Amino acid sequence: ILADMALRQSDRLAGWPARAFLPTRGTFLRRIEMLRTTKQVPAAASRRLCVATVGVLVLAGLAAAGLRGSGGVLGQAAAAQAEDESRSRAAQPQAGRDADAARGADAAQGTLTAEGRVGAFDTSYVPAEALGFIAVRPAAILARPEMKPFIELLGSEGGVQTPLGLPLQEIEQLSFTLIPPLQPERRSQALFLPFGAMTARATRAHDFREFLQKAAPDAVRIPTMGREFFRSREGEGLAYFRPDDRTLVVGSVQDIARMIGAGPGTTWRWPSDDATAAALTGAHYVTLVDTALFKSLLEQAEAEATLQSVRARREAERAGLRGVGLPWYAAMAQMKLLQAAYSPLWEQTKSITFALKLGEELSVEWLFDSENEADGQAVRRTIDALLTLARNMSASAAEMARQEAAGRAEEPLLVAVLKLAQELLDNAKLEQDGAHVRLATSGSLGGEQANAVAALTESVKAARAAARRTQSMNNLKQIALAFHNYHDVYGRFPPAVLYGEDGKTPHSWRVAILPFIEQARLYEQYRFNEPWDSEHNRTILAQIPDVYRHPDEPSDGTNASYFALVGEKTVFTGAKAPRNEAGTRVSQITDGTSNTLLVVEAKRQIPWTKPEDIPFDPGNELPKLGGYTEGGFNAALCDGSVRFLSNAIQETVLRALITRGGGEPIRYEDLEPRR
């Protein structure tokens, strides 16, 4: 049917099922007008487009080399390599911890090479009833030179971080095994519910403690089949299994138990033909689906939907209602028509394999394994029709995307991606060998893509820097507002250092204004009769409010990013006085609150509760300020406003801003516009 739709000639009408998908002339023209809308896309859409585009290219670059299980090699590289792997595999025990240790030692030999490749994909513990297997090699991909811009764009000094507690650069393999539930009542809903188990294998020994403490902090040990796994105490919560010191398997209790039962070898029905082995060799990303099982689950889902619809209609009729349940039938009829168009892809196949390779070119392969040649011909015709439709739609879709991205930072990258997509369509080759159908294509990853990525990287870096600068300015505004609220209560600004009731124990102004930045509970926990670094007060240190931390600082850091300038002629004189008499009044700032600095941004290794700030002596050199933003720093003035001050500001102007009563004139043209 889909082939008829795509290849229909003007003198030949498609059958009635196909006509359901073909709009009338009037409808078609109205849809064209809708696509011509000139409505502006909001900035958020631009950011989403940017992220999506980058994400597509990142996924297009994922991991390296073959697919194997401890019990059988799928991604065979070459005859010599396959022979070596077979000898290594034959030497491995087949059960228990010894098998896992042998598997771990074998995988450890697949270290990164200059080409960014590692050993084959590990398919251990995949049960026979698995619906599919998805795997990717993050470490191998990110080791490739062309991935460097993405690491700079998405990562940090510690790498591209993940919830697993280690960066992507240290994850050798990340895979997902799709395992349908055992219960019949849940199998009918399997296609609509999350199911399966995730396996993460690190490049080195790793305990995954950070992830497990958050995901299953109360896990209990469960022995089974000579092994053990852990599960959350809460009902059917998370369970996990550690085959070796580099691997973590996470899923439901049922899925983990079934994977342990499968053992270190794999019992799944892997395709074993030469074409599949060749496609998987050197693959960076693979997906394998058991379409026979998928079809079974789909039939169960349809039967369940029909049953639910009939029940709803009968109950409604008993209640005197009419028409209830009919939407179910209508939806199912539409779904069946849509399925009929491309159903050969799963109804007449046993398995589907997808493999992606990243090298000088981006190579993509789909393999469809059928029972016989006739089924293979039906699959080939369906794919041929899909290719025809895609080629017919590609030009208009690409033009729409270009118009949407015109003039934006991501435009060069989008143009490069569209060019690559068109090249993949143009180079697509469809072949059939008996019951096997192969669709392969490739596209160049040349300088145009690299230049587009580099341009986007710089643009995103600039946008991030601007966002961080704005966030820091907001922090300063909140601090300045807290100072004025403190002044309203106590009649003066807090001094840089306050003293406890004993008159000897010093404390920082950052602690004193906690109630005025919505941190009253933290303020009450602080003990003013103890030093700032006492055993108890150190527990407060770890709870640094976000307003005291620059966005560039690590999330677990405890150093302050905003400081007072302390000196005889500044707002913070440093003079020691009783608590109720310490601090400067607004009336004492004779230079004017809009001409005097209150708090400045500076990169210092000073904990936020420590009573220490930045000393200023008119007779000495100016202290070094800033350090977060290239070209200058943010500063809050005594009137509550915040400015970005350039590093090129005249020294006399900066000194005048620091003092509160020097009488020096301030020319606003010497400063950046007020923020």
Short descriptors:
675 residues; alpha+beta; twelve-stranded antiparallel sheet; four-stranded antiparallel sheet; 23 strands
Characterise this structure.
This protein is an alpha+beta fold. The chain is 40% helix and 16% strand. It contains 22 helices and 23 strands. The strands form 5 sheets. A 12-stranded antiparallel β-sheet has the order 7-8-9-10-6-5-4-11-12-13-15-14, with helices on both faces. β16 (497-499) and β17 (506-508) form a beta hairpin. The two termini are 62 Å apart. 35% of the residues are buried. Mean pLDDT is 74; it is low at 1-119 and 187-193.
List the helices and strands and how they pair.
Elements: H1 2-7, H2 16-19, H3 25-35, H4 43-59, E1 67-69, E2 72-73, H5 79-90, H6 96-108, E3 121-122, E4 132-136, H7 138-142, H8 148-154, E5 171-178, H9 184-187, E6 197-202, H10 209-215, E7 220-224, E8 227-231, E9 239-241, E10 247-251, H11 253-262, H12 274-280, E11 285-290, H13 291-318, H14 326-342, H15 344-347, E12 351-358, E13 361-369, H16 373-405, H17 411-426, E14 429-433, E15 436-444, H18 447-490, E16 497-499, E17 506-508, H19 509-512, H20 520-525, H21 535-541, E18 562-563, E19 565-566, E20 597-601, E21 614-615, E22 632-637, E23 642-646, H22 651-658
Parallel strand pairs: 1-3, 19-21
Antiparallel strand pairs: 1-2, 4-5, 4-11, 5-6, 6-10, 7-8, 8-9, 9-10, 11-12, 12-13, 13-15, 14-15, 16-17, 18-20, 20-22, 22-23
Helix pairs in contact: 8-18, 13-14, 16-17, 17-18
